[in-house]
User: Fold this.
Amino acid sequence: MNKRLGVLGCFLICLMMLSGCGGESGDQSNNSPVDNDPDTGAHPVIKAKVQALVEQSLQELSQLDCSSEQASSSECQKVKIRFSDGHYQEAKTADDQTVLFIDVHAEFMASITRRSRVKAMYHAPAGELLAYDPEIELPQYQLTMLQRFDNLDEFVHAGWLEPLGNRIRSLGATDPAGHGMIPFSVLSEHLPQASFVYLSNPKILSSRTDLLCALDFNSLRDHSAQLAEQIKTDIIEQHGIEYISWSGGDSTSTISALWGQECPEQPQPSLAELRELESSLRPYYEVLFNTPGVLAVQSTGLNVSPNTHVLDSDASFSNRIRVGYYQTLDSKLPIDGIIGALPPPVLPSEMHNSREYVDVFINFGFTGRGRDAPYNASPTMQTGALGMSYYPLNSATTSWIAPFALPWAIRLKNSEFLDHSLDNSLIAQIKARMTPHGCDFHSEDQGLCKTQDPAWFKQHELARLKYVP
Assistant:
């Protein structure tokens, strides 16, 4: 093993010499051609460095067995780590790509896998914004390997780490699950230069059950406004947020379910009262979706209507992109989606029923669900929570498709509006590029080409920056 590491050491020295001679700088150009050979790519220096570290890591783990006689090894012992134990590396990120990520159960990735790109974490368990410092337990060897690659000065494509990920899983490790893991894996992988602020879904109505169960709409609105102001001041302004991603939303059905949990002794509110309860969240939506110069994407609901989705159906939130989905192996769409009077791909019924209140529908690029689901040559892709694999998604929901809209929007910003600052006018232009006029089949679309297939054309930053062909 020592001999092997010695060879690797010499290899890394040669790589550093190559880097010092400018071997990588030419490949960073946006105009450099895509190399279709995945073994070379357009980032040869960092990729070769990563490959050497993968080989070293595999050697270190080659004799480890945490399931039997070595289970008492220090490398197999569980260790605890908090978000505050890590550090954000500003040099790894662009100063105009800070994303507010709102979701739940993505703490593992934010605290460990992508820790170097996460500026801060917050939650509001009682309706008041607080710093969030969760504690996570995992085996020492797993922490060592994850930190080894996250602590590098450059972005590491998850696909480069597949052999190491397979070895770690063979030792018994699993990719932690949770709703926010998939959206965060999509964003953090397809936005290589982005930094993030993580906000665990704030408890707004459920933190004031006294007001909720009393149907005190005005006080609930004041409560929502207070939290919204904290988010605007302490997160959006303090951290310079340019973009927001939220795979969630509210409706009369979610409010009704919350009522059943928190006010079980009382009769269900009427539809009008449920709508008023949802409307009390408007100040929160105003901050997320109408803050000047902040572009937000949100997953749409199912069967959206003004009666059942008061806020999600509201077009007055002008800086928001509501994202729905469809599934086909061949959308037959051009890159801009403009097809005139031809019928666009068929939407799932719950999406078609929402058509008027959704801004864009994105193709997953696979049909069915599960590991054996057939997919096309360029479907939507994700990573595992360990960030050591890159593979197609295989289940369809608006929560998973919404984060694909943001890398597409940022690619448009960086390719067509690179020298423009992100203001409301530019946000409107980006939205217009994503859904241009020129589609007349569905009158509800008002001539906009809402049905798009950005994954097929690799319209995301990971491809624009040449990490994938």
Notes: Confidence is low (pLDDT under 50) at residues 1-40. The two ends are 35 Å apart (CA to CA). The first strand starts at residue 78 and ends at 82. The chain has one domain: 74-151+172-464.
